[in-house]
Amino acid sequence: MCLGVVASPHGVRGAFRVKTFTEAPEGLTAYGPLSDEDGRRTFALSIVRVLRPDLVLCTCPQAPDRTAAEALRGVKLYVDRDRLPDPSAGDDEDAFYHEDLVGLAAVSPEGAPLGRVTAVFNFGAGDVLELADVPGRKGRLLVPFTRAAVPEVRLDAREVVVDLSSVDPASIDPSEPDSEDAD
User: Fold this and answer.
1) E-strand spans in 24-182?
2) CA–CA separation, 150 vs 10, rounded Å?
3) For position 183, what pLDDT does the model report?
4) Which of 34, 67, 68, 87 is deepest in the core (most CB within 10 A)?
5) What's the Cα-to-Cα distance from 14 to each of 4, 6, 19, 61, 68, rounded to whole Å?
6) Cα(121)–Cα(15) distance, rounded to whole angstroms?
7) CA-based Rg of the chain, rounded to a whole angstrom?
8) Which of 86-90, 93-97, 128-132 has the lowest mean pLDDT?
9) Beta strands in 36-167 (DSSP E)
10) How many angstroms separate the first and last alpha carbons of the chain?
């Protein structure tokens, strides 16, 4: 599971900023060493300072100077799923990781197929589900991940219920036309 991404170097001694995807910034280092996307490199990060709730200043032995820190820019930092706590073990029965949604089938409230979830994004105004393979639609569909638009997440059934009738048409990604001849 991706916990963060290296953003940019800071200073000349190898420190770098990391954009975190954890609930609390300290969660970035709470589960032990992190690895890159293919698992070839391991990073034992130390948090120097929390800059914002989603941005921390870090160091690690692999970045002794600014040049090495610059080389890490864009590296996504992962932890094995089994090292994370079970999200459903807490008080919130609807708790899950965003990664749990990727690959789920999207269905209408009536059960009609609407494609599959390929990603969960947050561009600053809330979470958004990306759906692919939507019947009758070329390209991908972005749907706000709100209770109105996605009233149910059924992890056991490997599906999410998406109610497009409750979604403002302006909030659905218009970048991909519905047909080949649309301009």
Assistant:
1) 34-35, 42-43, 46-52, 55-59, 76-78, 105-107, 113-122, 127-132, 141-144, 152-154, 159-161
2) 40
3) 44
4) 34
5) 18, 12, 16, 9, 7
6) 27
7) 19
8) 86-90
9) 42-43, 46-52, 55-59, 76-78, 105-107, 113-122, 127-132, 141-144, 152-154, 159-161
10) 39
